[in-house]
Amino acid sequence: MSDAGAPLVGRQDALGALDRALDAAATGYGFLALVGEPGAGKTRLLNELADGANARKLPYLAGRAAEFEQEMPFGAVVDALDDRLEDDVPDLSPTALRLLGTVFPALADRVAGPDAGHAPDGAADPVARYQVHRSVRHLLERLAAPSGLVLILDDLHWADDATIELMDHLVRHPPRANVLVAVAYRPAQASPRLAALADAAGPVGTRVPVEPLNRDEVAEFLGPDVSRNRCEQLYKASGGNPFYLEALARMGRHDDRLLGEDGIERHDWERGVANLTEVPPAVRTALQVELSALPPEALLMARGAAVAADVFEPELAAVAAEMPQEDALAALDALTAADVVRPTAGGRFRFRHPLVRHVAYASTAAGWRFAAHSRVSARLAELGAPAAVRAHHVLRSARFGDREAIWTLVEAARVVALQAPGTAAYWLEAALRLMPDGTDGSGASANGTAGDGAYPDRIQLLVELAHAQAVSGHAEEGRETARTLLSLLPPDDTVRRARTVQLCAVMDRQLGRIHEARALVLDELRRITDRQTPEAVLLRIRLVADRIQRIDTRGSHAVLETIPESAPQWGPGLIAAVAAMRPMVSYGRGEVAEAIAYAEAADQRFSAASDGDFADCLDYMIWLVFAEAFLGLHDSALRHATRLVSITRATGQTFILGYMLAGQSRVLLLQGRLEEAAAAADEATAVGRELRSPEVMAYGLIQQCLTASWTGDHDRALRAAEEAVACDTGSGEWWTHMAHVSRAIATINAGRAEEGAEALIAACGDGTNGLDFSTLVMCAEQLACARAAFGDGEGAAGWADIAEAIAHPALTGDTGLARLARAHAVRVADPAGAARLAAEAAGMLADAGRRPEAARADLTAGIAHAAAGERGEARERLRAAVEVFEECGMRGLHAQAVREQRRLGVRVPGGARTAPAKGRGKGAGKDEPPFGLSPREHEIALLVAEGCSNQQIAERLYLSVRTVETHLSRVFAKIGVPSRVGVATAMNRPG
């Protein structure tokens, strides 16, 4: 990064924060946000950060977003990383490089080859945004090896949605490396998501406000040659803003025009600059005077550069300015000498500050600016630049009805639709605005590319626009687009109308408008006379799915009974979708044998259909996965969930991906594959955030909560649960109740059993609150366990009775949990009987493939055997439990089982690593805490490894929760891990 040249005055607090962030970068991930008004000095502080990184021999990469290219996907990140990637292709898998090639031009050329790229319809080789985010995270990890990395991103208030989503991913899923991400933005122009990043980063996040200079600092900035009165004038005119102050000072010591006096000689172009309301009038005047003082050729070149790009090549700026290359280079020398522009890497240049470019751009007349963008667009086309690169200039120079411009925007939108759907929607809207009324796209080819002088199909563009808006988290706009599309489709075009209604209903659901979605479907069904046509059945099973969400078994059964298994005109996908609904409906009615038979039939239908058969009905298939999970058909459920995730990614239907991933996570959790379950839950939640859908987020957060709770990361589990509950839209559907159930279970597992039990009873109600039987059995077992822990055998027996009443004899997993509930109930009065019952439960749960719950039953059996004096049997059961807990990563329960083993005299390897502490030198003794931890930090780390929450640690050590959090942030930094799970892993690793 280039030095601003002006002296750095004040900023001691900010500089201290930068130093601390760089120091912390040596031990793990960090996130730093500089927040201040335009010209406050954010960029200068980022320069100081870069200098500090250099002094520490810490590599850094820097980029920034640009005001006039705000729609460019991942613009700031590409600016920072692309040159580095051009010189050095990272050591990543071919799959990861292919994904990164969709973002970084350098990798698209070097890795994918000259023939790679996206088909015009965007259907070739699609990837979900979350996969791209994860690949960028892995890229940063590679770039950070071995010395670390500082990634500097300036002016993020101008970044596109895709960049902010990536930043959000990086703070929620930090790179496992020494990486500091430093960003700067203006608070008034920042999106809520950008403004929340520092808080979302938790203990490793820092927000640094960049305030104006005070009077004394202004005087120091100006130097001793400026009088006190002049300092006061400049202070008042600039408000203490360093850039404004510098601009005003450049005008000369005695130039009163900067104070807004009348009599300024004005040029016509200055009227455009006067409209820059975000810049104080005095500063606007100063910048006007600075530009007016340039030679005419230099001013023309500055305007051409402002049009060309944020980081511009002289040749392209000359094209924009209509200047011969020789004259343009001479003008560029004048601009550099006047410090209007500064050289950067690769023979390119950029303005010394975005506000200077802003003023140069605004100084151009509208007609000249239009023609300049047109010249740049034409030159880029001659050079073979991709549509996505040309779109920015095409958009600003296209004439109404310009076919070539329209097709360029459409092609650009289709190229970026999967990685940056918000940008795709922006370009599609622009293309639609340019299309004259009455253009129907006749002559366009079937795949939506240009024909012989034809316009694109307006209907097809509206379909693509609605889809892009849906997956980019703008469901409200997508819903309006879909309704516009419906108004254009003739009544007899029932197929496209049904597909549009289906998409609109999905978006209504994402917005929490369940009743409006149902009304839209019913209204469209009234238009269709034949209820057995594919389009009618597509909408009818939408009604079934909505009723399933509410566990409305009677309503869903009534609709499904009127739908045959198949019809001659149905495709394989629709036949499979109808079959997929039947197991869940039968299960909800208590017809388990029938549900299993239906699930087997649906499995056959699903297998018979190809991936391409599910263009319109893929989201219905998730109910087969959930039904199979409830029915204990875990292998089939996982196989189907995995295929659904694959199809969803391949077809770009990311607005339903979160449901598929949540179903996959649920099955993996039941099987004890917790690491995989957590990854699927994290991605489901990320998809929900991208969609800004409370429902999809909640599906992922529920699984995040349950998985984290079982791994012993209770703080994370409770945070996820609280966020899931906050997503409750009041619809009364299954997921809203599951959010409350997950929070209650996480509370119990965090050691607040009484509070959690009360919350769990409230969440379950009388059993008719819209929860499935399997969940109700699980809740009853948890409540029996909680009552038994309080010595309330009678209360535990009551919950065991309920579990046995709900569990169906044909479902081994549910009956195993009911047997475990009975073991809890008799534990106090008859420990030997409890051990027998728990052992039976362990066998049943193991047979059902539910390894974590089988291990919990073994733990219960071991404790009961010990209480009955049966030490040999107790050791055996505890050994089995410990093995499963360790294999599954269930650290809290593993620590509990190990404690029980030690009580029985079993010698268990020590948990804490006893290697000499970092940084203590040769004098570190063998009893010193590891990793350089203080005795208190070591004590807290050991309790984290046992699965204790911050609240539990605070109570045990007589500290405040805030003090525990402070110690724990230091523990993270010293051990070099980003989470409690990492602490537990490090402390439980044999020395």
**Helix tally?**
49
- The helix content is 55-70%
Which of globular, elongated, flat, extended, rod-shaped describes the shape?
globular
Radius of gyration, in angstroms, nearest whole number: 32 Å
Give start-end ranges of low-pLDDT stretches: 110-126, 253-277, 911-926
Distance between the termini: 44 Å
For the biggest β-sheet, the strand order reads 2-3-4-1-5
Count the E strands: 8
Proportion of strand residues: under 5%
Q: What profile does the largest beta sheet have?
A: 5 strands, parallel
Briefly note the structural class of the backbone: mainly alpha
The overall average pLDDT, rounded, is 86
Quick gist of this model?
The chain has about 1000 residues and is mostly helical. The chain contains 49 helices and eight strands. Helix content is about 65%, strand content about 5%.
